User: Fold these one by one.
Assistant:
Number 1:
Amino acid sequence: MDKMRAAPVTVIIAHDLEFWQKLPFLFPHEDRTPLFRGKPEYCERTAFLNGTLQGAYLMIAARALGLDIGPMSGFSNQIVDDTFFAGTTLRSNFLCNLGYADENALFQKLPRFEFEDVCTFV
């Protein structure tokens, strides 16, 4: 909580459960709305996955601009949704602090797996 309060910006990465209604504008090539109409679980899963990818793109862009990022989960999504998105079809996924971190508070680079230890080719 202290890191979030100290960050210049905290972004709520969220997704819209009714994203598919904007597909005629966003994907005018063909009507894909029937894939989602009347399928709330499918809409929610698709929105969540694509929203997560968009959040990752935001973090990559912030890093490319030289900003430090601090993605966070483990908070009450319900409280965030009730506070910021009440009456909408938006749902929070994760939070992300953006700014320039205190160098003394940053973790050093943690261990990483070798490619061969976590990936396979089929």
Number 2:
Amino acid sequence: MTIYSGPVFEMARQQFQTIADHLDIREDERDRLLYPKRAIAVSCPIHRDDGSMAVFQGYRVQHHLSIGATKGGVRFAPTVDIGEVAALAVWMSWKCALAGLPYGGAKGGVTVNPLELSVRELEALSRRYMQEMIPFVGPHIDIMAPDMGTNEQVMAWFMDTYSVHHGSTVNEIVTGKPVSSGGTVGRREATGRGVVHLAMRAAERLNIRPTNATAVVQGFGNVGSISALELAGRGVRVVGASDHTACLHDPRGLPVADLERHVARTGGLAGFSSEMAADPKEFLTLPCDILVPAATERVIDESVAARLRCRVLAEGANGPTTPAADAVLAERGDEVFVVPDILCNAGGVVVSYFEWVQDLQQLFWEEDEVNRRLMHILDRSFEQVTSRAARDKVSQRTAAMAIGVEKVQRAKQTRGLFP
């Protein structure tokens, strides 16, 4: 029996078992590698603007601390539960290990629709959540970051709440903060920039020239919008963009900068154009060279995988492709070059690591230095994954996860089991 359930955690468990079989990991070692070290569930009561009281459920899962502190985002979303948060923490562990970062994976969340909260209510909930987490987090224990439904402002509230409790400013307790509060330049754009950098590396291998390429981006939040802008900046024609409010498609190309301004003004893509409206059920299977799923988990199932018409699948979201879909893609051979999520969207946690290091040292870098170091780590990881995939004749996902799991396994074996 386990407290971790639901389709997202089951997906993470299936992926791990596949890798454990591939690496011949002993059965009695598997549970220690898969199941989180610690899970916290809290109630977060706040006063609503109308004078009533509401209670929201919050979670934080710390997967392992064998390499260093845990690291991971906090999402505010209606779908958040302990199983989803645990799965995201597990994936973050493999991601940090693959990138060579001194972290274990963590994730947190509150079950709430942040769009239904006023700014005052959002601040109250953010501060209450951090207040409840103070006994379990710290700059060398667990460092939070933004995720779906949270942003730089929420991180500033987190940091301030922890600092008030501590008695002095502790910038390094969270990353993804505003630059004015100890954040780093380049953090907000890091995930999207990394997605596009690696998509271009994959396109280069397929002899696809950016100026002749097309792209479809699902999700137009931070990751998706930056990805679309970066693609357009490299000469790629972005023919599709979607979010939770609308799907847009134009084979001639979308005005990405105009889309971003519209979303900043209205909160979503809805209302930008009725002529460009596309069928959400067919959106992911639109013909393109580069497909960037940058929304939520499990959007590409076996049915969608069989109908994909992209050459490069650059996974900006966490867990967008199910294990059943991976099997279909494997049957399709070299038709689709997959840049798996734990590699493709690692730019965010890499630059979060840079922010943490800068906060600890109180020595800050220029943005070109941040980007140079980011691309070096992403290129190194890309070469490791593609070389491992070719050597072992396995998929890019299997190669990426095998590298991550191996590193965590070695760390646990070296440290031993106490007592």
Number 3:
Amino acid sequence: MKARRPFHNAIVAAILPIVLGWTAADAQTAGAGGGLDELFTRLKEADAASARRIERQIFTEWSRSGSPSADLLLQRGREAMSAGKSTVAIEHLTALVDHAPDFAEGWNARATAYFRAGMFGPSMADIGRVLTLNPRHFGALAGLGTMLEQMERPERALEVYRAALAIHPHLEGVEQAVKRLEAKAAGQEL
């Protein structure tokens, strides 16, 4: 993995301005339609249990491409991932992003498949595309934070995790990651 570090650094350098270049207020107003805007408003105000339900509603909305063929490719890609077949998932999801390049959830699903295959560079590139199309995609931000943490970039991971929490204050696992990284940073400063 060390040999890939310069490549990863270049990808991180390209993606982070996208992620960090907008504020939480921008995230609240970006993206599609009033229905999602209302869900995001409710998400920020919800308790943890309600937030999980609202999160599922948001993901359901994000997963609607408007094209039956794109929806089928997304379904097949997700099924392949669930079956542990990352290569097959990547093939289906590559067909999806070729067919529907403006469908953010297609890019997000392929980023996940690449991540599961251990291909951080392509995963990060796809996350960059997701966040360009949908800056409120807290799942993509959480994935980016995880990769940055695994690449031993804790300061950057913390920034990205905080950006995710600004959108979704109860994002599972991310609250704990922020506390862990903050504690680690505080311990290093002593």
Number 4:
Amino acid sequence: MKHYALIFLMLMSCTLLSQNDTKTKKSIYKTIDAWHEAAANADFDSYFKLMTEDAVFIGTDATENWHLEEFKEFSKPYFDKGKAWSFTSLERNIYLDSNKNLAWFDEILDTQMGLCRGSGVVVLTENGWKIKHYVLSITIPNPKVKNVVNIKKNTDSLLKQKLKLKTE
């Protein structure tokens, strides 16, 4: 009988942990959705309040690696026009660290650029979950990669030269 009680307690413990993970993931999901919604509504303050003070946003262009203040400066004109960008998550995966205060995610987005992939890191702060790092990528079907490589060949060549000069 003691064995059954122990097994029951173990199952209940696993169930509670699973429910807590689900609740935590739902909270993270809501944060990311609210962030995307704030951009779609051109709500500058709400958008950037959902990011940490040391956040990084990496855009689709190879030169777009912005720390928060740089990203605000880049983004402000778009928000001021009343239309920033509109990203709707079609699929999202969230992964939690063992302490449940750090998570990373990936998502497929419906955007004005067609399908894109977003991935990022969120951290639990005193004010809830916030985005610390985000990477936006345009998806390219594998059969079309060669065409895209050819399209960006000259631009990539110039940027590679510039970056090599920086490291010398």
